Amino acid sequence: MTLKVIGAALPRTGTVSLKVALEMLGFGPCYHMSELFMHPEHATILANGLQRPATLKTIFDSYQSTVDYPGSSLWRPLLDQYPEAKVILTRRDPAKWYESVCSTVGKPGHVRMLMQSPLAPVALQLPAFGDEPGNPEATMRYFEEYGDAVKAEVPAKQLLVFKVQDGWEPLCAFLGVPVPDQPFPRLNDRNSMQSEGDLENLTFEQVQGLIRSANLL
Question: N or C, which terminus of the chain has less Cβ within 10 Å?
């Protein structure tokens, strides 16, 4: 098995929908943040991924695709290790994206839980939302600059800029697979895992339980 698809987009850009879609198309298993929660032993390798990119293969050789954090923060070394992989950049309105981050994974309690969990080395080494996550203008600017960097550095024939609203056709054409006779998955992990209020106070173990119950693995 080898990594065939790299989701380079930041979290909260339809990455859960894309994960499920890729697995439906035969590009599973797909590495998502939910995998890291269930495999905290990956934390040290991922945290050192920018400095030791070759070690990333010890994780990603077991997956055909990756979306969401922390793979999104490692798209450059992953592309170096898997130069034939195709890259997908999911996009959404920056203001709506920032609101979504603030109401879910950017909540202070959730961030605090991560920093007190086995995943802290990853969160410290690979900031998911730039250097000023509490500054709306700076974070939205980071979102735009991040996307611009992906589009500038990935060869055009190897990159798909995608919105989940686009559905199956552009995704399947890019990956060279038939369009399934099923609706495109339109999932919102804000609703599928927990309410916004709960996210503020969940423990690491509770998040693991919710990932299991939400069938995100």
Answer: N
